[in-house]
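Hi everyone,

Forwarding the result from last night's run.
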Amino acid sequence: MRIRILKQTSINGQPARVGQLLEPSDADARTLLAMGKAEPAPMDPDPVILTPEAAAPRPRKPRPLT
C-alpha cells in the first residue's frame, strides 16, 4: 500500500519526512493511517518522492564585546 506522510514519523527506525511517498508493510501503513500520520496515495507508475526544502539558516547576531 502506498502512503503519503502527513506528519514526520519513523518507520522501522527510518525517518519518514512530510510529503514523502512510501510503500511500507501493510501493517505499518494501516497503523500510520489510523494515527493520522499518513494518507493513502495514488498508485502512479512513476512516483515522485516529494521532500520539503530545508529552510535557510538565520543569520547570527553579533555578540557584544565585553
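The beta strands are 3-5, 9-11, 14-16, 21-22, 38-40.

Cheers,
N.
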